[in-house]
Specification:
It is found in: Cytoplasm. One of its GO terms (biological process) is thymidine metabolic process. The chain is of the alpha/beta class and about 200 residues long. The structure holds zinc ion (ZN). Zinc ion (ZN) binds next to loops.
């Protein structure tokens, strides 16, 4: 016999760009919507790629969302009826997002977040290591390496067609930038310091 269990946990969907993280987040949101669960979807203000009031996958799937500046604003939007909190592009939030996710999960909310686990240099992205450690469930998605076809786990940044430097800033004014999925062996980072 099953006993009634307490809801509330943290799920992380991570991986490189073009791995379908937002697609998977939207799929989970839709499944829970069919079950009539009370869901609020968030994304950080920094992301204006496609839409201001929706999260949109590369394949065009979309769901409405609230755009917030800071992690703590999420707590103000959540109410007593909220059962699920979904967050896209979670890697762009300030470090308070970790405590926010933990607080909500402790309160019985199913928290589902999607985000890049590594930056273009292949280094851990901001608060992602902490979220991945604290999560009950982790889904690590891969893309396909544009060079060799292997499972891609990294995001290659190209500036004016050439691999970006380890020292390049995140925003380069006036440069033509392009990102593509690469495997460990095909991922190129110019000027990356050698440890050994
Ligand atoms: Zn490759």
């Amino acid at each position: 016999m099953y006993h009634q269990y307490r809801a509330g946990w943290l799920e992380v969907i991570s991986g490189c760009m073009f791995a379908g993280k937002t697609e998977e987040l939207i799929r989970r949101i839709n499944v829970l919507s069919y079950a009539k669960m009370n869901i609020i979807v968030f994304k950080p203000k920094i992301d204006n790629r496609y839409s201001d009031t929706e999260i949109v996958s590369h394949s065009g799937a979309k769901v409405p969302c609230l755009v917030v500046d800071r992690a703590q604003e999420i707590l103000k939007k959540v109410n007593i009826d909220t059962e699920v909190v979904a967050i896209d592009e979670v890697q762009f939030f300030d470090k308070d997002i970790v405590d926010v996710c933990e607080y909500l999960a402790d309160k019985g909310i199913r928290v589902i977040v999607a985000g890049l686990d590594k930056d273009f240099r292949g280094e851990p992205f901001g608060i992602m290591p902490e979220l991945l450690t604290r999560a009950e469930f982790i889904t690590k998605l891969t893309a396909v390496c544009t060079k060799c076809g292997a499972p891609a786990t990294r995001t290659q940044r190209l500036v004016n067609g050439k691999p970006a430097s380890f020292n390049d800033s995140i925003v380069l004014v006036g440069a033509v930038e392009h990102y593509e999925p690469r495997c460990r062996h095909c991922h190129e980072v110019v000027d990356k310091p050698n440890k050994f």
